[in-house]
Amino acid sequence: MASKGTHALSLRILAECKTTKARACKLKLPHYVVDTPVFMPVGTQGTLKGLIPEQLEELDCKIILGNTYHLGNRPGHELLEKAGGLHNFMKWNRCLLTDSGGFQMVSLLKLAEITEEGVKFQSPHDDSEMMLTPEMSIQIQNSIGADIIMQLDDVVHSCVTGPRVEEAMYRTIRWLDRCLKAHQRPHDQNIFPIVQGGLYPELRKKCVQELIKREVPGYAIGGLSGGESKDDFWKMVTLSTEYLPKDKPRYLMGVGFAVDLVVCVALGCDMFDCVFPTRTARFGNALVPTGNLALKNKMYAKDFRPIDDQCPCSTCKQYTRAYLHTIVTNETVSCQLLTVHNVAYQLTLMTSIQQSIIEDRFPQFIQNFFDKQFPHTDYPQWALDALASVNVFLKKS
Ligand SMILES: [Zn+2]
Asked: What are the φ and ψ backbone dihedral angles of 235, each rounded to 5 degrees?
């Protein structure tokens, strides 16, 4: 188990917002230095659909997420180990984060069953029964070699209530201890535990209190953004950051809608991931400061403007909405062009947030952001409440 001071990361707080709980940091990881708040695009087989590592570098993306479940299946962790880890295999020299594989299993495989030992599931290749234990998850993630790895947690849907939530929370802590014990590379890989506890404030608080007794390099907030009300969502987020130590990074899992990012940065989160921006690109949707352009719509057939004339991405420099409208059904090409743009949108948004925190104008940034997203000032009530809880009161202009 790693002892104090031996973690493979360092977090330097550059600025703290004087109004909200937001902070801007330099997160030094084994492969690269990441500026936070940061959005991490999600790759599946070690690559983002339609993008190659050079394009990600061009976008100045510094950290991406890989799915352990997919990587464990293909190419397989033994092969990854032979290849010298995923960084070397996919020629990506910057930071990687891998999930534990558990969430993917529970959501993808119908027959997954959770026992104290681990997640039992039927092999997708034949009918044999397999088991993902906390130890195996860490062994696979040690072979992949990501800068940040995740503990295996007992995942329950955010709408589940009752004793199962408490059971999952305590099991997650027991599994954390097994993961920490199994971790072979604390000198160059950082393991993050996951705050669970469903929508029960007492359980969440208890979970954080247990996790911070362990010597870990950072924390993830899990079990949210799965269909719970937005009101429950923000309250669980802010409660978690309230009790987490300030000197370690906080990663809010599975969150990536622009409005959610802005609010949750204000609530004190540093890192985010979500499949939404790249997934929605495949359906012809481009993210813009006013929301979303559905490029299939006929209204773009003769629109010779770029998706966003302020966007620095290669798609916006070269192509018009009219052109993208005509090729939007050709998935391979349009998917690549729109993925580049949507990743650029997310990264630009986070850079702007970070800059505004450093320059101590984050509250004004939030107001401007919401003015663009909601030109009729029909701000969602949950966002108004969440922001008010950190002293930001949106004005209806
Ligand atoms: Zn663009």
From this structure: -70, -40
378 is catalytic: no
Calpha distance 359→357 (Å, rounded): 5
CA of 322 to the centre of ligand 1 (A): 14
Instruction: Render 319-365 in DSSP notation, one character per residue.
Output: --HHHHHHHTTSHHHHHHHHHHHHHHHHHHHHHHHHHHHHTT-HHHH
Catalytic residue among 99, 147, 154, 260: 99
pTM of the predicted structure, to 2 decimals: 0.95
User: Left, alpha or beta for 153 (phi > 0: left; psi -120 to 50: alpha)?
Assistant: beta
Amino acid found at 193: P
Nearest to 104 by CA among 64, 146, 71: 71
Burial of 28 (0-12, 13-18, 19+ CB in 10 A): middle
Select the highest-mean-pLDDT range: 29-38, 60-69, 105-114, 121-130. Answer: 29-38
Contact yes or no for 188/28 (Cβ under 8 A): no
C-alpha 128 to ligand 1 mean position (Å): 46
Determine the Cα–Cα distance for residues 345 and 21; give it in Å rounded to an integer. 24
Q: Angle, to 10 degrees, between the axis of helix 163-182 and the axis of helix 201-211?
A: 10
Gyration radius of the chain over CA positions = 21
278-317 pLDDT tens trace: 999 989 999 999 999 999 999 999 999 999 999 999 999 9
**Catalytic site residue 273?**
yes
Q: How far is the CA of 317 from the centre of ligand 1 (A)?
A: 7
Q: Residue 174 carries which side chain, given as an amino acid letter?
A: R
Which residue from 214, 215, 233, 216 is spatially nearest to 224, judged by alpha carbons? 233
